[in-house]
């Protein structure tokens, strides 16, 4: 049976990425509190393609994913990337995996327990010239508007905000520690389960800690600048404004990537 | 060329709906302030299929849509539905069209003008036994939590909420009038453009009009019960809670459909 | 601390549904091959609200979900619904949970193994008048157009189609059995991992089994009509047409619900 | 009334982007065939924020958008960006606007007319150091798998594919010309309306022009390399594989940006 992908290509154009997108697979990831957590990954996997060949062999990506699915974490991304390079005969390999991640939280006064979802992503790339890894956490928080509080005789508009933090690190960092850093930078963190005593506490906490989107990303940046394990970061905060149908937004990244 | 769709089917199963979904088309709709508004419709169009035939003729739906695209409104839905029944040789025809709709708003104090988007839908069905029409408006508003206000020493959590109202009517009703009825039932309406004097006004207005999701749908229901043109309604309110990552929800419909 | 939700309401309007939406929680569900499967549920939970009270107690839904999260399946939905009715002092309780579900598949010729995702949903409702349960499976398949095959000198357009099947049953049915019934009704089933010998097999299988969206839902209906455990069903097929940017659609339901 | 945003910030962190996201507004854009086209834009608008100030003035973005909404096109993006820099007292201004765009098409044999939707985006940035503009078009096409055709005794799997092309140009280019270039690079272009004679034509055309995702992006790249108005490009093709639930993908960009 002819291998059409292996045919020679004469257009003289090498491709940066060829591969598979939106492959959904159950995975296990590291969990600071419980050792391991079952979740579901959405994978994009790519290699480069030299101008010599007509196509890549898409099935090999799925074979590699199936092989490693019980051990997807930042510690073995490097090995998966190397397997991709070898099995796909390529110079560069890239893997992106997004997954929901749950952390047990206690309500601030009642201590009632529940599980809160965060949206995480690992991104890795490897070539003969080196490798690169990033971790992203998506954290929803409360922001209360400093301007609204200051100018109004009573109340202040507040809303759910989505903070996205991407980091490059020199030593292993826990997803949980990145999440807590973000939550500490907002007007208040979110909880799935709040009894009435807790609702009073989070309402007053947010009112006492007004934050623009601009404040949130600056607070995160200040903390990350002091964390030696973090080589580079980019952080954005998008507020689902309760007084508008559109969102307010702020973004900052560490200006220089020390690599 | 053989007409495969017209072949006899022997499985003895009539189908309730066959047709096309997610057809995107530029349309013009009636606008209370400006006569007509250009927008973009997402169409689902169906007919029934007798157990005699293998398939329907999908291209005819697009021909009909193309023919009527400059005159899509509640006043001629009936004619479009009749054209569908005739051209598709069917007993029942159904059309659903969703579209963004913009209304000019003035900020409450500065009177600054801007355009606010609402998500609308028309739904019509016709058969030999009669016809049925519904209009749906999606309206985002502010809700401020009565419990949070009552139990907290300062502030109150509030958020963007999405209200969806479906009505069946005996006389023509303007989309704008449905929108205003919903906005009057919330803690405060939304505005794209608010200067500082306006932000103070909406913050205090929301604080002075706390509303659960339950309150919003009840307020809407009370007003609709008094509006003689409205034969039936269903209204839901979903709050993007600023203290949770999940939403609070309330739903009520008029119990009896007088048809 | 005052219980605002428990205050009397004077508007005289009972609400059909009050509760929480889009609560995300890790769950375990029954798995025919492996006993149990870890997955992630998206929950909507509602009760009705009498016209006597201003609001419901949203936190109790999360408490119940947290309590039962390790045993979410069709066999104990009834108990969860009863707990909701009791703890929320309501007449009616409703729970909807959607979750991804993975099944191991073997490629048709090479027998290469991989995991395929299906989108499932359980829906239950309980009141003093009785209870009702439905299960829904979402299954992506290949459809190859009978008309295109018949009229063309070579080839035939084909595409990914999404079939959605909802059933009400008198005896327990496995999700896996519903999935297989749908896959057998299409031009061909999908596989995450196909080697070249498999790709030849599925291409020819699809070409030899052309199916309109209309054919797929009729094939499913014929099989379900013969399955005594199935009391009622509704099935739809939506083709992501490879020759259009819109979708073709067919829908049929069992006409009478024998309850 | 105090201007909280104008307060001094002491954290010493300048922000790359502050502004508004997902602002929806009706706009008019240039249309090669008809002069002008009404559509609906989704806007992101940003400026940078010096470390001296606590926040930006979000309402000014909406004022600017409202002012220019009847003249949004590549020819006046520069003026809008300059207005943003001046009114927001910033060094850098950025605007992104995505919008659906409709082009009239004729079916290949019957010449039946209908409107086809494309998803377009303009992106502009301006600072004292210079300016930058990009245009993106999203084009759905048919791809038919060369491997499947070659190894199978009959038929070949094919599917809807989504091609995304971003270009930077030295002279004005029409959206329509970019669209046609992409459509000519696929197995076949899509049409909303196809009669039976047309369906035969597109089925056979696709079968006679098999294309991997890799082939599509290479074909686009070859044509763009010969077009002198195009300074830089990036093109990706994502196939909604009819034999898998995941997608196949290829990406290439012009290696050097001549600016």
Description:
The structure is a homotetramer of 259-residue chains. By secondary structure, chain A is an alpha+beta fold. The first copy, chain A, folds into two domains: 1-100, Urate Oxidase, CATH 3.10.270; 107-259, Roll (Urate Oxidase). The first copy, chain A, has six helices and nine strands; from the N terminus they run E-E-H-H-E-E-E-H-E-H-E-H-H-E-E. Chain A has helices spanning 58-68, 77-87, 146-151, 175-183, 196-208, 213-225; strands at 15-31, 35-49, 93-106, 113-127, 130-144, 158-169, 188-189, 230-239, 247-253. In chain A, strands 1, 2, 3, 4, 5, 6, 7, 8 and 9 form a nine-stranded antiparallel sheet that branches. In chain A, helix 1 (58-68) runs antiparallel to helix 2. Chains A and B meet through strand 5, helix 3, strand 6 and helix 5 of A and strand 5, helix 3, strand 6 and helix 5 of B.
Please describe the topology of this protein:
Four copies of one chain form a homotetramer.
Chain A: E1 15-31, E2 35-49, H1 58-68, H2 77-87, E3 93-106, E4 113-127, E5 130-144, H3 146-151, E6 158-169, H4 175-183, E7 188-189, H5 196-208, H6 213-225, E8 230-239, E9 247-253
Antiparallel strand pairs in A: 1-2, 2-3, 3-4, 4-5, 5-6, 5-7, 6-8, 8-9
């Amino acid at each position: 049976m002819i291998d059409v992908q292996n045919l020679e290509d004469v257009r003289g154009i090498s491709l940066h990425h060829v591969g598979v997108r939106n492959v959904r697979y159950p995975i296990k990831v590291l969990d600071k509190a419980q050792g391991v957590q079952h979740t579901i990954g959405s994978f994009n996997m790519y290699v480069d393609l030299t101008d010599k060949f007509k196509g890549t062999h898409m099935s090999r990506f799925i074979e590699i994913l199936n092989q490693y699915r019980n051990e997807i974490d930042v510690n073995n991304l490097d090995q998966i990337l190397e397997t991709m390079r070898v099995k796909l005969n390529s110079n560069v390999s890239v893997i992106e995996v997004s997954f929901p991640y749950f952390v047990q939280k206690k309500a601030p006064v009642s201590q009632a327990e529940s599980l809160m979802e965060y949206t995480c992503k690992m991104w890795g790339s490897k070539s003969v010239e080196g490798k690169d890894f990033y971790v992203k956490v998506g954290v929803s928080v409360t922001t209360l508007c400093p301007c609204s509080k200051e100018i109004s005789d009573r109340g202040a508009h507040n809303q759910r905000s989505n903070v996205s933090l991407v980091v490059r690190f020199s030593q292993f960092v826990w997803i949980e520690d990145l999440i807590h850093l973000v939550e500490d930078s907002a007007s208040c963190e979110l909880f799935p389960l709040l009894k009435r005593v807790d609702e009073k506490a989070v309402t007053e906490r947010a009112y006492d800690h007004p934050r623009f989107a601009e404040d949130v990303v600056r607070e995160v940046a200040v903390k990350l600048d002091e964390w030696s394990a973090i080589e580079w970061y980019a952080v954005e905060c998008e507020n689902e404004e309760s007084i508008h149908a559109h969102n307010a937004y702020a973004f900052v990244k560490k200006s220089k990537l020390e690599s």
